[in-house]
Write a structure and sequence with these properties.
The structure holds 2 protein chains of 2 kinds.
Chain A: H1 4-10, H2 14-20, H3 25-36, H4 40-49, H5 53-70, H6 75-87, H7 95-112
Chain B: E1 12-17, H1 21-31, E2 35-40, H2 43-52, E3 57-63, H3 71-80, E4 89-93, H4 96-104, E5 109-112, H5 118-142, H6 152-165, E6 171-178, H7 181-188, H8 190-207, E7 214-219, E8 222-228, H9 233-247, E9 253-258, H10 267-280, E10 289-291, H11 294-315, E11 319-328, E12 335-347, E13 351-353, H12 355-365, H13 368-390, E14 396-400, H14 410-420, E15 428-433, H15 434-438, H16 441-453, E16 458-463, H17 470-473, E17 480-483, H18 485-493, H19 499-511, E18 515-518, H20 523-532, E19 536-538, E20 546-547, H21 548-561
Parallel strand pairs in B: 1-2, 1-3, 3-4, 4-5, 9-10, 12-14, 14-15, 15-16, 16-17, 17-18, 18-19
Antiparallel strand pairs in B: 6-8, 6-9, 7-8, 11-12, 11-19, 11-20, 12-13
Helix pairs in contact in B: 2-3, 7-8, 13-14
Classes of the chains: A mainly alpha, B alpha/beta.
C-alpha cells in the first residue's frame, strides 16, 4: 500500500502534492494510485517503439502534467526530459530515459499492490 | 448579445476541461468550496457543455492538449462565437510558448502546470471572474440597446480618453438630428421608427469608422460623432444625403458641426455647440449642415438668459401691453374700429427687448402660454378701466398661439377674464395665425369653431403666409382675414403690383368676411387699400403700437365723434 512515508522515501515532494489536494492525504494517495494506472505510461512506450513521436509526445505531455501536479519526483524529472526530447521530435535512443522512468514507477507500483 | 448572469446555488459556475482525470479532480478539490465545478474530459465535450451552459458559466479552465478537439482550437471556436466569446478562459499549460499564444488567441490568463499554490489559483480565478463581470456590466451600460452605439456618458468618457492620447489631433464635434422624427413615429409606428434609427446608426458607423471616430446615440433621434477634422463639409453633406435617400424620402437630417474643437472646453460643451449649430437649421430643410460660430453661442446664451429672466419679468410687471389701433376705412373718414394688443418687454438692464427675439423662443419652449394669459388678463382689465373712466372702448384682439389651442380649459380661461372684468365676447377678439390652421387643421378648426360658437370674433392672422388651400379656407371658422404685412411690402416695394391683394379681397368677399391690412405705412398704401376695398387697416400710417395712456387719446377722440 502506498503511504505518505513511502512517497517521501521515493523522492516525492509530498508537501507540494498534498497542498494541491488541499491537504487531504487520502485524496492525494488515491490520485497517486490513479496516476500509476494511467494508460499513457503504456502508450508512451509503444509509440516511442514505433517512432510515432507525435503520439508519444502527447502521452509524455499528459504524464508530465499529472506527475508534476502530484509532485512525484523523481518520475517528474524523467518525464520532463522525455517530453522535451519528444517536443523537438528528436530521434535519439529513448531507452535510458524510459528505463529510469519505469524503474521509478516500479517502486511505487510494487508498493501499491 | 450580453449574457444574463444567473447565479447557481449562490456560486459561480466553472468548467474544468482537461483530459487527465487527476488534473480535473485536483482543480475541483481546490475550487469546489467557492464554485460549482463542472468537468469535461475532452474538447468536444467541453464545447457542448459551454453551449449548454452559456448563460450561467462564469469561467472556463482549459487544458490545451486534449483528444477530439484540442484546447487551442476550442479557444478559437469560443472566441469566434458572439454568444460565447465573453466567457473568460484560463488556459492550463505546462508549455511556456503556449502561454503567450493562448493569450494572443483570447485567453484571459493562464495557470501553469504543475499548478501553483491553491490560494494563487483561487485568487486568479476570483480576480478574473470579477473583471469579467465588471466588463459585462460596463458593456451593458456603455452601449445603447437599440443601436449598439455608445451611450452618452461612455461616449464622453471615451472622447476624453481619445484627447488624452491624441492631444494634438484636430477633432470635430458633430451632432446629427432627424427633423421631426416624432412624425415618423406617429405615421409609421415606433417599430418602423426604431428600424430607421438602427439603419442610420449602421450607416453612421460606415461613414465614421470606429478606428478613429466615436459615435453615440444621445437621445431618441440625436446622434453625436467625435471624429478627425473634415475640411470639406460638402463631403459630409453628400454622405448624409446618401443616408437620407436610402432610408426614406421623407426623412431629413440636420447636421451641426463644431469644427476643430477647443479641447480646453469640457467635452460636453463641445457637443452643446454642435447641437446649437444643428438646432439653428431645425426647420430649414434646404440646408442640412450648419457650422458652429461664436455668434450662435451668443444667440443661444441670450435665449437662455431670456428664459431664465421670464418668471421674474412676469412677477415684476416688466411686460407691458401696447395697443395698435385698427381703422375702418370704408366710409369717408377713417373710424377707429378696434385695436390689437401687442406685448413689449422692458428689462431693467437689457432695455427694450424686441418681441421678435422672445416670442418665437417662448413659442418653442411653451412659455408663450403664460405670457399670453398675462396679456389677456391685462387687456381685460384695461378695457374695463377704459369703459369705467372714459365711458368708451373698442374691441381689442389678442393673439392665441398654437399651443393654447390644445388647452382644454382655453374657453373657461377666456370666460373668466371676460366675467371678472364685466365684459362680453364683443370686447375681446381673437387672432389665430394661419399656420396654426394648416398644421392639424381639423383639430384646430374644431377648437376655433367652439370659440366662434361661444361668441368670439376670430381673425385669421398673417393670411397668405401659411400656405392654406383655398378649399380649406372655405370651411374654416373665421370672421376676418388679416392680410400678411409682406403682401403690402411686396406690392409697394418694387413692382407696385397690387394684384395679389385684390385676389385676397376677392377670397374674403367670397367668404363674406372683411379684410384687415397690416403694415400700412404710407398715404399711398392707405389710398390704394381703400380703392381696392380693404375694410380695415392697421399700421404706422395711423399709429405705431402705443402704451395704454397714449391709446386713450384715440378712444377719447372716438368718444367725441360718437
Amino acid at each position: 500500500m502506498i503511504t505518505i512515508d513511502l512517497l517521501k522515501e521515493s523522492g516525492a515532494d509530498v508537501e507540494s502534492g498534498l497542498s494541491r489536494c488541499m491537504g487531504m492525504e487520502d485524496f492525494y494517495l488515491s490520485l497517486v494510485v490513479k496516476a500509476l494506472q494511467d494508460d499513457n505510461f503504456t502508450v508512451l512506450k509503444e509509440k516511442i517503439g514505433t517512432k510515432d513521436y507525435d503520439a508519444a509526445f502527447e502521452a509524455a505531455h499528459a504524464l508530465k502534467g499529472v506527475l508534476g501536479n502530484l509532485s512525484l519526483e523523481p518520475m517528474y524529472t524523467s518525464i520532463c526530459e522525455i517530453t522535451e526530447l519528444l517536443r523537438a521530435r528528436s530521434d535519439v535512443d529513448y531507452e535510458p530515459y524510459l528505463k529510469a522512468l519505469y524503474e521509478q514507477k516500479a517502486v511505487l507500483d510494487e508498493a501499491s499492490k | 448579445m450580453e449574457r444574463n448572469k444567473i447565479y447557481v446555488n449562490g456560486k459561480r459556475r466553472i468548467l474544468v476541461a482537461d483530459d487527465e482525470f487527476i488534473n480535473r479532480e485536483m482543480l475541483e478539490a481546490i475550487l469546489k468550496d467557492e464554485y460549482e465545478v463542472i468537468k469535461a474530459e475532452d474538447g468536444a465535450i467541453a464545447y457542448d457543455v459551454v453551449k449548454e451552459n452559456k448563460n450561467t458559466l462564469s469561467l472556463i479552465m482549459l487544458d490545451l492538449i486534449m483528444p477530439n478537439l484540442n484546447g487551442m482550437e476550442l479557444l478559437a471556436r469560443l472566441k469566434e462565437d458572439s454568444e460565447l466569446k465573453s466567457i473568460p478562459v484560463i488556459v492550463l499549460t505546462s508549455d511556456h510558448k503556449s502561454e503567450v499564444e493562448s493569450l494572443h488567441k483570447g485567453a484571459a490568463d493562464f495557470i501553469p502546470k504543475p499548478y501553483p499554490e491553491p490560494d494563487v489559483i483561487k485568487a486568479r480565478v476570483r480576480r478574473l471572474i470579477e473583471l469579467s463581470e465588471d466588463r459585462q456590466i460596463i458593456s451593458a451600460t456603455a452601449t445603447d440597446n437599440l443601436t449598439g452605439l455608445f451611450t452618452t456618458e461612455y461616449f464622453y468618457r471615451y472622447g476624453e480618453q481619445w484627447d488624452k492620447y491624441q492631444p494634438d489631433k484636430k477633432m470635430d464635434a458633430v451632432c446629427i438630428d432627424i427633423n421631426h422624427f416624432h412624425i415618423i413615429n406617429e405615421r409609421f409606428g415606433m417599430t418602423a421608427g426604431d428600424h430607421i434609427l438602427q439603419i442610420l446608426a449602421d450607416r453612421l458607423l460606415e461613414i465614421f469608422p470606429t478606428d478613429d471616430c466615436l459615435v453615440c446615440r444621445k437621445t431618441a433621434d440625436t446622434f453625436l460623432i467625435y471624429c478627425p477634422h473634415h475640411e470639406d463639409y460638402q463631403n459630409i453633406v453628400d454622405k448624409i444625403d446618401g443616408i437620407v435617400t436610402d432610408i426614406a424620402a421623407s426623412i431629413k437630417i440636420r447636421v451641426g458641426v463644431y469644427p476643430c474643437c477647443d479641447k480646453n472646453l469640457e467635452i460636453q460643451s463641445r457637443f452643446d455647440r454642435a447641437k446649437i449649430a444643428a438646432d439653428k437649421i431645425r426647420n430649414n430643410y434646404s440646408v442640412p449642415v450648419s457650422v458652429f460660430d461664436e455668434g450662435l453661442l451668443k444667440t443661444e446664451l441670450y435665449a437662455e438668459q431670456l428664459v431664465e429672466e421670464f418668471p421674474n419679468a412676469i412677477e415684476e410687471g416688466q411686460f407691458q401691453v401696447y395697443f395698435q389701433p385698427k381703422f375702418n376705412i370704408e366710409g369717408d373718414k377713417p373710424v377707429l374700429s378696434s385695436a390689437e394688443a401687442l406685448v413689449r418687454w422692458f428689462h431693467p438692464e437689457m432695455g427694450m427687448i424686441s418681441p421678435g427675439k422672445f416670442i418665437p423662443l417662448f413659442e418653442e419652449n411653451g412659455l408663450i402660454t403664460r405670457l399670453d394669459e398675462y396679456v389677456w388678463s391685462s387687456v381685460g382689465k384695461r378695457i374695463a378701466d377704459w369703459k369705467r373712466r372714459l365711458g368708451v372702448s373698442v374691441p381689442v384682439s389678442v393673439n392665441l398661439s398654437r399651443a393654447e389651442m390644445y388647452d382644454p380649459s382655453l374657453i373657461s380661461k377666456l370666460d373668466n377674464i371676460i366675467n371678472e372684468n364685466g365684459l362680453t365676447t364683443d370686447d375681446l377678439y381673437l387672432e389665430i395665425t394661419e399656420s396654426a390652421y394648416v398644421r392639424d387643421s381639423s383639430e384646430i378648426s374644431n377648437v376655433v369653431n367652439e370659440l366662434q360658437e361661444h361668441g368670439f370674433f376670430i381673425e385669421m392672422d398673417d393670411f397668405g403666409s401659411g400656405y392654406s388651400s383655398l378649399n380649406m379656407i372655405s370651411e374654416l371658422p373665421i370672421d376676418a382675414l388679416k392680410l400678411d404685412m409682406y403682401f403690402i411690402k411686396n406690392a409697394f416695394s418694387k413692382s407696385h403690383n397690387t394684384k395679389m391683394i385684390s385676389i385676397v379681397i376677392d377670397i374674403a368677399d367670397y367668404l363674406g368676411v372683411p379684410v384687415i391690412a397690416e403694415g400700412v405705412e404710407t398715404e399711398e398704401q392707405y389710398l390704394a387699400m381703400k380703392e381696392l376695398g380693404v375694410a380695415v387697416i392697421q399700421g404706422y400710417y395711423f399709429s405705431k403700437p402705443v402704451p395704454s395712456s397714449e391709446f386713450e387719446k384715440f378712444l377719447t377722440e372716438k368718444g367725441e365723434q360718437d
